[in-house]
């Protein structure tokens, strides 16, 4: 089924004409930028409404044959799966999200976007399939480049020249050297032309991102040289002076950004162009000794980039520190998007605290003026081993995090929806001894379980304790171990609790013993909870060195019932825009979900707004038979499911139709050709290798969504009938031609 659908889609997209290399008309993109009351914002050209991007990084990392981890499975021939993409996009859309960030090249060497001959045809075909699925579900796509391809006349020639001169090396070569900037221009213009050739749905391309995370390296040439070099902008810099080094970073990188942006806009004037950045390490030194320079402020103030993508993760530095180093506390001239944020596994022992962490972080970013939010990632990396830097996926645990952060539940992106349940956070703490002030007892309740430990400075036994301020009935206590090593070593941790403010009546309730690694989370969650607790002490009777602890968390019962409802189900037949139905017999509608529930509600209506509902049934299965006598072309359907906590969100709206929608037709015939194509006011139909003569023709024209927009009833035509399309808007249409008992399909582009 997968291969069948893909082959059809490729046929539809690959039957272009010689004019496909020409740029598309202006304003093909839906998303643009305007300034309202002195603040830049995204908006939708069609509706005029403000567009606030909310969604996910969608990457699907898998085990790489060239390394331990990982490469994107989205577009490679041996792993691309259109049905997986469709299922994910259905659920993302049903939860109210409107954007995804997709890496176009998260791979290396021959297993990637380019080979020795240039951009790989099948790779680009698969990318257009993803864009079509995004269009089907109303998702805007940021297409992100991680680096230039190794093959295909892109990074290779630049590195050869840089290496031969010795002026530039590594990533600096691609950003600062003449051939490097030329290669960037070539890649992005080639890339956009390939999308144009395939009539990709540009209306759902939000932006092109030049780099995932932008930086230069001060530990390789030209920054390690003691002589002058000439950069891509034609200027000479003396690398023996600190002033010229800074000037090169400022001027050279502005030249790279502006030159590449101008090349894209010359080809595609309405395109939006951005770049991604991790947080600079100054003025606050967030990464001591880091060789990477992030010249964000220079590009913020001087570049022609349309907007900026910043990456900030909770649980490490504060939001204020990030904003200070970016210099965007009061910046409103161009939009700034939080293109990566999320909760990493070492920071949260379950999906609930993970959701809390990102819920509060997104709200803080929103309150600071950030213009969009893309969680990292939709699905935890598809790697058969646990990685220490894996994130909690939005789709994990019944899409719990996705529900919490979604516009369907978190309607105000600036407002926290999950209340704090860690009652130890920020409470008074003390310890048996402290090595230095920076390793004080308060570190165990600062909300940073992997960065700021308490260190006693002495051998066991030692203890650290927290006063909760009042009595609580706790659900669990979680300890984050500090060992200083990823190698396992034997430790013991005792948990003692007291109901008194003085802590005079401590009672031991649990004793952890075993080999531990750094940041390991130890959870004590007894049946019935832990009653009447005001003080908690962690005693460390055994350790291979000084006693220490990263974090102590004390959780009251979670308030999660609203988010424990089922996630939106996935419509598996007919899939919107992929499957048509046969109205000559009963139709079995089918859906599925990752959770085990069959309690469903289905609604079928004659309109997308479900104001004319013809069927509304509750049933205990995941399918429904629609009688053929009820079929009316088209019908619309949706499903939601229920568990003990209530009903979840509705699925996306599906279409029940027997006409062409997108790529669902079985065969794109080669017996006819439409000309001219692209066309302006009309096109002709030519029947190849046959004597047309005078015969009866019937012609229907549909949008890609399957809506009929033109019908030319039975007429007797001479050869090559002429069909008027003056009334149609510019775009791509499917033409259905019936001649005698033969029906053919073709595609026409209206200019």
TrEMBL record:
Residues 411-509 form the F5/8 type C domain. PROSITE patterns: FA58C_3. Residues 1-20 form the signal peptide. It comes from the Bacteria. Pfam families: F5_F8_type_C, Por_Secre_tail. Keywords: Signal. The keyword Signal applies. NCBIfam families: Por_Secre_tail (TIGR04183). This is T9SS type A sorting domain-containing protein.
């Amino acid at each position: 089924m997968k291969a069948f659908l893909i082959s059809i889609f490729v046929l539809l997209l690959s039957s272009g004409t010689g004019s496909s290399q020409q740029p598309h008309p202006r304003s093909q993109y839906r998303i643009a930028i305007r300034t309202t009351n002195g603040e830049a914002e995204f908006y939708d050209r069609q509706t005029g409404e403000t567009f606030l991007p909310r969604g996910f990084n969608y990457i699907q990392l898998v085990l790489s044959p060239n390394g331990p981890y990982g490469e994107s499975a989205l577009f490679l021939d041996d792993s691309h799966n259109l049905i997986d993409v469709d299922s994910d996009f259905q659920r993302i859309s049903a939860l109210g999200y409107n954007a995804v960030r997709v890496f176009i090249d998260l791979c290396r060497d021959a297993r990637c976007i380019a080979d020795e001959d240039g951009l790989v045809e099948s790779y680009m075909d698969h990318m257009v399939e993803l864009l079509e699925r995004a269009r089907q579900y109303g998702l805007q796509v940021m297409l992100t480049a991680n680096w230039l391809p190794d093959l295909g006349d892109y990074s290779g020639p630049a590195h050869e020249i840089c290496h031969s001169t010795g002026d530039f090396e590594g990533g600096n070569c691609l950003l600062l050297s003449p051939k490097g900037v030329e290669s960037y221009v070539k890649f992005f213009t080639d890339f956009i032309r390939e999308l144009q050739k395939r009539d990709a749905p540009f209306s759902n391309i939000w932006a092109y991102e030049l780099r995932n995370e932008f930086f230069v390296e001060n530990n390789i040439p030209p920054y390690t040289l003691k002589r002058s070099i000439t950069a891509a902008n034609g200027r000479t810099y003396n690398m023996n002076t600190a002033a010229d080094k800074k000037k090169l970073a400022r001027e050279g990188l502005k030249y790279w950004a502006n030159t590449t942006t101008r090349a894209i806009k010359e080809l595609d004037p309405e395109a939006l162009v951005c770049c991604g950045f991790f947080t600079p390490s100054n003025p606050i030194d967030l990464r001591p000794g880091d060789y990477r320079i992030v010249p964000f402020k220079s590009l913020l103030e001087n570049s022609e980039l349309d907007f900026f993508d910043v990456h900030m993760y909770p649980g490490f530095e504060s939001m204020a520190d990030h904003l200070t180093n970016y210099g965007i506390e009061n910046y409103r001239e161009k939009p700034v998007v939080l293109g990566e944020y999320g909760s990493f596994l070492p920071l949260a022992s379950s999906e609930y605290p993970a959701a809390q962490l990102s819920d509060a972080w997104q709200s803080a970013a929103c309150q600071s003026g950030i213009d969009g939010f893309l969680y990292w990632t939709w699905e935890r990396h598809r790697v058969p081993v646990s990685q220490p830097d894996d994130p909690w996926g939005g789709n994990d645990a019944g899409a719990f995090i996705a529900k919490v952060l979604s516009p369907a539940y978190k309607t105000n992106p600036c407002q926290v929806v999950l209340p704090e349940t860690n009652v130890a956070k920020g409470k008074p703490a003390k310890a048996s001894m402290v090595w230095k002030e920076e390793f004080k007892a308060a570190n165990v309740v600062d909300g940073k379980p992997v960065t700021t430990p308490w260190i006693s400075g002495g051998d066991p036994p030692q203890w650290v304790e927290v006063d909760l301020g009042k009595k609580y009935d706790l659900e669990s206590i979680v300890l984050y171990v500090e060992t200083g090593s990823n190698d396992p070593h034997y430790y013991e941790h005792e948990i003692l609790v007291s109901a008194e403010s003085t802590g005079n009546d401590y009672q031991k309730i649990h004793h952890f013993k075993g080999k531990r690694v750094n940041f390991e989370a130890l959870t004590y969650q007894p049946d019935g909870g832990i009653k009447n607790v005001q003080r908690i002490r962690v005693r460390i009777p055994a350790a291979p060195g000084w006693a220490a602890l990263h974090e102590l968390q004390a959780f009251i019962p979670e308030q999660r019932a609203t988010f424990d409802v089922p996630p939106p189900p996935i419509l598996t037949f007919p899939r919107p825009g992929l499957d048509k139905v046969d109205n000559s017999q009963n139709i079995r509608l089918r859906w599925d979900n990752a959770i085990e529930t069959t309690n469903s509600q289905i609604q079928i209506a004659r309109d997308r707004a479900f104001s004319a509902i013809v069927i509304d049934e509750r049933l205990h299965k995941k399918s429904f038979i629609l009688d053929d006598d009820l079929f009316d072309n088209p019908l619309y359907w949706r499903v939601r499911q229920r568990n003990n906590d209530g009903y979840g969100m509705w699925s996306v709206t599906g279409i029940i139709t027997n006409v062409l929608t997108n790529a669902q037709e079985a065969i794109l015939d080669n017996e006819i050709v439409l000309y001219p194509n692209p066309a302006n006011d009309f096109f002709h139909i030519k029947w190849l290798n046959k004597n047309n003569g005078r015969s009866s023709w019937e012609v229907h024209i549909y949008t890609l969504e399957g809506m009929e927009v033109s019908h030319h009833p039975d007429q007797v035509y001479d050869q090559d009938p002429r069909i008027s399309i003056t009334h149609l808007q510019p775009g791509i249409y499917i033409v259905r031609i019936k001649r005698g008992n033969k029906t053919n399909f073709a595609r026409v582009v209206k200019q």
